[in-house]
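To assess whether ligand presence alters the predicted conformation, the chain was also submitted together with NAP. Input:
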Amino acid sequence: MPLPLPTATNRAVVTGASSGIGMALAAELARRGHSLIVVARRGEVLQELKERLESQFRVTVEVRACDLSDPEKRAPLLEELAGREISILCNNAGIATFGPVAALDPHYEKSQVQVNAVACHDLVLAVLPGMVSRRTGAILNVGSAAGNMPIPNNATYAATKAFLNTFSESLRGELKDSGVNVTLLAPGPVRIEEIVEEDKTFVDRLVPDRFWVDTTYTARVSLDALARNKMRVVPGPLGQAMSVAGNYTPRRVMAPIVGRFYAKLGEGQAEG
Ligand SMILES: NC(=O)c1ccc[n+]([C@@H]2O[C@H](COP(=O)([O-])OP(=O)(O)OC[C@H]3O[C@@H](n4cnc5c(N)ncnc54)[C@H](OP(=O)(O)O)[C@@H]3O)[C@@H](O)[C@H]2O)c1
């Protein structure tokens, strides 16, 4: 099934639309004529996005400033979405931490599980019954290549992304012939913005520029994949290499190798 056609009443929901991949997904959906509900904590950034997209394209953009890490704060959003005609859900909002779990802020680690996994699950549960009964809908879950393998020093993130990767690909199997498409976007590194040489982090320097993909490209190939109901989309050569390595290398071999690399990222975060 291609993507549901945009109508005056239906809406595509994008979480984490105030930055990076989410903002690019919102822009690409608007370019394709879809009216939107955009979600993130920073309402003022979403408001600017609304003004930009509404002036550029013939779409309506509704702003919902919401902290998805808080079950009480996301409850009204879930209730609203369950009652709306949601044509597309892009479950994109996500956060990451680097370093040993024992040294990280427990509150933020719990927030990470809420944003990356529980809220995504809640959002699917809210919109799916409507999509199934209308026999049309599309869900893009933004997991990660990091969800394919154990990653010491990125444990909570890798585990939450493993949840979303597996949930997405399992759900897709249940929805065959239902009219609802489900695609997992499992990227490797995606460059969120241009960075000048002196601002480059350890990972920016380690990964040559030609291996990075940008958010506009990521959004375009992801929505194309969703329209074709592909099981998984992995933009760019590095993400694809990570995907193969993560899926086919024995986990006990992979864990110490990636663990050393992510320990470096943890040091970078501590310095930053
Ligand atoms: N960039 C990469 O290399 C890469 C690679 C693999 C996977 N991914 C995944 O792709 C997704 C987008 O990543 P990105 O790099 O574009 O990230 P980003 O630029 O940091 O954007 C994250 C988005 O999530 C929102 N968000 C964070 N915490 C939130 C909360 N508590 N409630 C509501 N919204 C929240 C942020 O908005 P507010 O701050 O306004 O709330 C922001 O819009 C994430 O799921 C990430 O794990 C990214």
